[in-house]
Design brief:
The protein has two domains: 7-43 and 305-413, Aspartate Aminotransferase, domain 1 (Alpha-Beta Complex), CATH 3.90.1150; 71-303, 3-Layer(aba) Sandwich (Aspartate Aminotransferase, domain 2). The chain has 14 helices and 15 strands. It has helices spanning 7-15, 47-59, 66-69, 75-86, 100-118, 133-146, 161-164, 187-196, 216-219, 246-249, 288-303, 306-327, 355-364, 388-403, and strands at 26-27, 33-34, 43-44, 93-96, 124-128, 151-155, 169-175, 200-204, 223-226, 241-244, 334-335, 347-351, 367-368, 370-372, 376-380. The protein binds pyridoxal-5'-phosphate.
Length: 419
């Protein structure tokens, strides 16, 4: 990419950006630069209308008949098929349902169950110390609950993936793009490594779905989970998804065997018998309003050329790094995001000793990023509604916050329940 040294250069890049028109599809407040789409995506303009339709017409008028007439019953599976397409896993089974945490539990239970039959001696679950905490908590919960001598082994600075995954490993659970640093695992390479050691792999795609191209079928992945409220702009708490490779789909038994995963739920049988296909990964009655609203953002993501998206994401994250380093020297900002393109997701993180207050002061200037412990300023780059000039303006705001020590005010030290 030609180098950018002025705001005018940014405007020139914006003028020829093939994805620029997508910005019109989102509702963003005037004067705000939104760099938190990696936490909660923006509102698609068509979402309120869809929400009103599902509430006022489908629920209000059609009432309970909607399970059949408006196809509510199949919504998780129909949307799941779209998600499978997005993650390059069309041959597998996928449903939109529950939260990522719950889907981690289900995928882990199903993977351990398969391994208990194929390799009963394997008792190790490998993850990484830097994983999003809920993934580790779900593993801990599963280990305690099963009480069968499983242990959690963590990849970290002292233990590489090569060393951690061995012939005692039942399951590997990794997050493709790290929530804090934005570091990206080589999904193909690690899947191959896990399989070469006889382990199954579950990928958490929360910080990559809708942001980086994913090809689960091509990689030969076993299971995947992810959320839809970040880069897929599905809305706060919108349903997550669980994907299972075709070769496991008919066999995998998930532990939360509720009536929505039953072969014939309305026969009200006394015993559980799983239905074939993706539905067996459902548990209970689904949040129809959230599912319907989420589909609007997902449909936008399916229109996007994923290579163009990736190129713009890398161009904008690189620009952010270059501008911070060239325009704000002499401040204690430490980049923790990889410079190598293939190792980077779609957000950039810098550590600053006063990170929390710096982010609060930046938000007061209309640049919304987020903060993660310890000291991490996290800037999500969503190519669908951000341009080059936005990156310029965001870095300029950060420069003013730091150079004028705007962060050093009492109001920017107050912490809410959510940071
Ligand atoms: C990588 C990762 N996994 C899991 C989760 C938790 O998802 P949920 O709250 O839907 O359970 C998050 C939330 O941000 C995440 O970033």
């Amino acid at each position: 990419m030609a180098s950018i040294t002025t705001r005018e250069d940014c405007l020139r890049f914006d003028a020829t950006d093939s994805l620029a028109s997508f910005r019109e599809r989102f509702s963003l407040p005037e004067g705000i630069i939104y760099l938190d789409g990696n936490s909660l995506g923006a509102l698609p303009k068509a979402a309120p209308e869809r929400a009103l339709d599902v509430i006022a017409r489908e629920w209000g008028t059609d009432l309970i008949t909607s399970w059949n007439t408006n196809d509510w019953f199949d919504l998780p599976v129909r949307i799941g098929a779209k998600l499978a397409k997005l993650v390059g896993g069309e041959s597998g089974a996928c449903v939109a349902t529950d939260t990522t945490s719950i889907n981690v539990f289900k995928a882990l239970g199903a993977a351990l169950d398969i391994q208990r039959e194929d390799h009963p001696e394997r008792r190790v679950i490998v993850s990484e110390r830097e994983n999003f905490p809920t993934d580790l908590y779900m593993v801990e919960g599963m280990i305690e609950f099963l009480d069968r001598g499983y242990e959690l082994r963590l990849i970290d600075d002292e233990l590489s993936a090569e060393q951690a995954i061995g012939d005692d490993t039942a399951v590997v659970l990794l997050t493709q793009v790290n929530y804090r640093s934005g570091r990206q695992w080589n999904l193909n390479g690690i899947t191959e490594l896990a399989h070469s050691r006889g382990a199954l792999i579950i990928w958490d795609l929360c910080h990559s779905v809708g942001a980086v191209p994913i090809a689960l079928d091509a990689a030969g992945a076993d299971f995947a989970v992810g959320c839809t409220y970040k880069y897929l702009n599905g809305g706060p708490g919108s349903p997550a998804f669980i994907w299972v490779a075709e070769r496991h789909a008919g066999r995998a038994r998930q532990p939360l065997s509720g009536w929505w995963g039953h072969k014939s739920p309305f026969e009200m049988a006394v015993s559980f018998e799983p239905v074939d296909g993706a539905r067996r990964f459902l548990t209970g009655t689904q949040p129809i309003i959230s599912l319907a609203t989420m589909e609007v953002g997902l449909d936008i993501a399916l229109e996007v050329d994923e290579q163009a998206l990736r190129e713009k994401s890398l161009a904008l994250t690189s620009l952010f790094i270059e501008l911070v380093e060239s325009r704000i020297p002499g401040h204690p900002l430490t980049l923790i995001t990889p410079r190598e393109h293939e190792e980077r997701g779609s957000h950039v993180s810098f550590v600053h000793p006063e990170g929390f207050s710096v982010m609060k002061a930046l938000i007061a200037r209309g640049v919304i990023g987020d903060y993660r412990e310890p000291g991490v300023l996290r800037f999500g780059v969503t190519p669908l509604y951000l341009g080059y000039a936005d990156i310029w303006d965001a870095v300029e705001a950060l420069r003013l916050v730091l150079e004028n020590e705007e962060w050093n005010a009492a109001e920017f030290r107050i912490r809410g329940a959510v940071t």
